[in-house]
Design a protein that fits this description.
SH3 type barrels
Length: about 250
């Protein structure tokens, strides 16, 4: 199956949301509407659940699909990116995001062939969610503590050496997972991106309606968010574009 056929099949189908926000009745209603081709209704139902519930990757992913099928590329990219923030290693989300981004006018140049070493490190980094990593760190901490106690109780040099070796290995694993978790927390706190959800968005020199227009970004363009100031967001896109856009014309992926 070719890459593009896989993309189209992925967008045409809707993921099962039985486990996503089960307390929201709009999940099931939205799924029925989507499968019947009523994408506006699906969007209304799922957005109500998304706005009133806990962030969920499956829900965001399906909202992206619904917006894409409804012809709203900006919102599709926004929700694909929101889903990918929660599940960075998901192939379906990555493929649909790339497909949607290929349809925008303001395209970022391809970075070239993917480095297999960096790709492997990226996948290892995102193999576990942040929550799973924190739980794993807690479990390793108590395991180290128990082995440390056992090392003082056991009799025999060999048994003590085994305990010492186990503590060394677990400590190394703890440090690796801890570093990955710390970086994820840093990214969640510091690195914020935004997407143009309107037909276009003016980049102005100051956070004011009366300020000079520097550039205009088309629907679906993704940019870095530096800060939010009132009804505006300070943004940066590459080395050439920096200024302010109206929050009403963009979506901030948090």
């Amino acid at each position: 199956m070719t890459f593009w056929k896989k993309i189209l099949l992925t967008i045409a189908s809707v993921a099962t949301l039985a486990t996503a926000a089960p307390e929201c009745s709009g999940i099931e209603e939205g799924t029925k509407a989507y499968n019947n081709g009523d994408f506006e209704r699906a969007i209304d139902e799922w957005r109500t659940c998304a706005d009133n519930g806990t962030p969920d990757a499956d829900l965001f992913y399906n909202l992206g699909n619904a917006y894409f099928r409804n012809g709203k590329i900006g919102f599709a990219i926004f929700y694909y990116r929101s889903a990918l923030r929660l599940r960075p290693n998901d192939d379906d989300i990555q493929h649909n995001l790339k497909y949607a981004q290929a349809m925008t006018r303001d395209k970022v140049e391809d970075e070239g062939e993917e480095n297999p070493i960096l790709s492997g490190l990226f996948k290892a980094h995102h193999a576990l969610s942040l929550k799973a990593q924190l739980i794993t760190l807690l479990a390793i901490f108590w395991l180290i503590a128990l082995i440390g106690i056992a090392g003082r109780i056991v009799i025999g040099e060999k048994a003590k050496n085994v305990c010492t070796g186990a503590i060394f290995v677990l400590t190394a694993v703890f440090c690796v997972i801890g570093s990955s978790a710390a970086y994820k927390i840093f990214v969640l706190e510091k690195e914020i991106c935004g997407v143009v959800t309107a037909a276009d968005a003016d980049v102005t020199s100051a956070p004011s309606d009366k300020s000079q227009t520097l550039n205009t970004l088309s629907e679906g363009t993704t940019f870095e968010v530096i800060s939010e100031q009132g009804n505006f967001a300070e943004i940066r896109l590459g080395e050439k574009i920096k200024g302010f856009v109206k929050l009403s014309e963009v979506g901030i992926v948090k």
